[in-house]
Every structure is written in C-alpha cells, then in structure tokens.
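Box 4.2: Ligand-aware structure prediction
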Amino acid sequence: MHDAENQTGHRAVESLLNYETVKYFGNEALERTRFEKAQLDYEKAAVHNKVGLSVLNTGQGIIISLGLVGLMLLFALKIKEGIFTVGDLVLINVYLLQLYVPLNMLGFAYREIKRSLIEMAAMFGLFEALPDIKDDDDCAELVFRDGNVTFDRVSFSYGVGRDVLKDVSFDVPAGKKVALVGGSGSGKTTLSRLLFRFYDPLSGTVQIDGQNIKNVRQDSLRQMIGIVPQDTVLFNESIFYNIHYGNTKATKADVERAAKAAKIHDFILSLPEGYDTVVGERGVKLSGGEKQRVAIARTLLKKPKIFLFDEATSALDTHTEKALQENLNEISKGCTTLAIAHRLSTIVDAYKIIVLDKGRVVEEGSHHGLLKKKGYYAALWAKQSRKENEKS
Ligand SMILES: Nc1ncnc2c1ncn2[C@@H]1O[C@H](COP(=O)(O)OP(=O)(O)O)[C@@H](O)[C@H]1O
Ligand SMILES: [Mg+2]
C-alpha cells in the first residue's frame, strides 16, 4: 500500500511538472490512464489492507465473545451446583472484560507496529546509502594561492560502456581565461562536474594550485568555484531570492550590483513587481536568456575565485551576449576562468582554447594559432562564421 501510494504521488507530480510537454504531444489521456492505473493499484492495496484488518478484528471479536459466553455458562453451572456465588460471577466477568479490552487493542497495535517497521526499514535503507563522494577524515581545506587549475590524464566514465573522457590533460594558468570547445556530447559539461567534484575521475587527477581536489574538503573546494551551469534551474521564489541565493549574506545593494553586471537589472525593473516577481516552477516564467542572466548574477554574487561558465550565454541574442561578455570579462579579470563556449566568437580573446572531440583533447592553442593549423577548430570556426554571415 505504501509503495502504491508513493507511485501515485510520483505520477501526479511528474505529469504536473511537465505539463507543457504533456500538452505539446497531446498526451493528456495517456497521463490520465497512467495516473488512474496508479490510483487503481493503490485502491486495490488499500482494499486488501482493509479486508485483512476487518478479518482480524472480526475474528478477534468472535473469539472473545465465544470465550466470554463459554465462561459465563460454565460459571452459571457452577453456581447452580453451589460451588460459586453470584458475587464470584460478577467478579470474574469484570476481570475478563478488563483483560479483553486491552486484547482488543492488539489488532490496532499490530497494524501500527507493522507500519512503523516498514517505514523504519525504508529509513534505515536511506541511512545505509553511502555518498559516492566522501571527504576523508583527515582531509584539509583547499588552500587557494593563485588559482592554477590542472587536469592531469583524466579519464572518466558514467558507467560500463559510457566512457566519456579519455586521458584529458590541460591546465588553466592562474588568472587566465581558457575556453573549452567541442561538439555536443564531447564531455565538456562532464569536465565541469569533475572540477566541482560531483564525481571522481576513474584515473588521473584534477588539481587546484597543486592540490588534488580529492584530498581537500568539498565545501572549501565548492566555495572557491562559481559555476553557471548549462541548464539553469531556478527556485519558484522571487527573482531577488534567486539571486540572493548565491550569497545569503549579501545586501540588497549587492544583489542589484550583481544584476546590473549580468545585464538583467533593467529588465527586472521593467516588471510590474520588480525584484519580487516570482519566477514559477524551475523558472518557467522567464525566457531562457533571462534565466541565464539571473544565474550569472547569482554566481557573480558568490564572488568565487574560479569561474566556470558552461555555455552560460547560449540563449542570448548576439547583441546582448556581446555586452554581457564584456561585463563578464571585466569581472572575471584576474580570476581563473574556464569558459565552455557555444559561440566561438565569445572566446576569441581566450588565453588558450582547448578543443575536445569524443572525450579527447584534439587541439590546443590560441585562436589565431588554431586557425593557422586548419584543423578541427578552423573548420568549426569557418562553419560558424558562415552561419553568422547568412543571418546578417
Ligand atoms: N549523468 C549522466 N549519466 C550518464 N551519462 C551521462 C550523464 N551526463 C552526461 N552523460 C553522457 O556523457 C557524454 C558527455 O556529456 P556532456 O559532458 O554533457 O557533453 P557536452 O557538455 O560536451 O555536450 C554524453 O554522451 C552524455 O550522454
Ligand atoms: Mg554541455
């Protein structure tokens, strides 16, 4: 019954959260049947449960009543024979009733205990789940010196047959901007997850200022890095709350400054409710570009030592992107920055460009150097420039 109940809740939440997708494909009926099926399963389990309980209670009642009647008859006979008095009968009747009432509770207690045991088993199961990434007992804080990030022969796989990174080595010198480019699925986002230590590499190391991030405390590592992820998810709260989330100690003025730097302040003020505008589930009431800029403002507020932008401006038009890019360059000046780029025009100024293909570093160098090489990057650049020209 518990499982079925969880299932119905899960189905309802899932189809309601994804209501847009449900409607895009006209699958309301499908969702309804799936929900109905879950409900039916729950109904069956609940009826089963109730029937069991009724049988238990009725059975108990019958046994108790039979016992009572039998004993009374026995006593009546003994009184007739003159062995017991009527007073004895009343006494034994009271005793029996006192004994039976708690016995009747037994069914209830049994059900409650059983239910608690099931819930406890689930809870202990959760306790026993070990986190994949754990701090060693004796690990130290990450000591930030100047922000050198090094990937050293890193290989990674999400599971058997899902090898993503193969022997990736590169470094991001302190205070420089390094760009990461490559086709979709080449492992760029995975590299950012490794740097943030959501996963540990299968082999090889990721180092910051010479310290293997495996050997430092996770909170000290994550405090230092500011990520603007590829897919921004916001809380269904006000815009202010969402930006303020980046640093809960920041003041209102700080939040506005970050919003200005992320080129979203003017837009927010143009909304009837300004910073108090609620953004909807996961931020559905904002456009992709607006969401990205809120996410950038949030990360700027965190004031990290190392920036990681994962296609952070991909949903913006070229014009806004340029303006925002200038701001970002300004802010991240002197900070180590790893920029995963979608549009190559945003990273021509990068100190170094790493080209990733199918999980391997295939080229590495400055924009001009790579163009001269006439390899993968040059081809990518030619393709994108052609597209941009066609558009304008
Ligand atoms: N959580 C995950 N579990 C399993 N496979 C994943 C997961 N995330 C990404 N992948 C796979 O890893 C590969 C690289 O993904 P990703 O790093 O997101 O690429 P990129 O950001 O370069 O487009 C893809 O083939 C993707 O399907
Ligand atoms: Mg990606």
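In the box above, the bound molecule is magnesium ion. Residues 100 and 261 are 76 Å apart (CA to CA).
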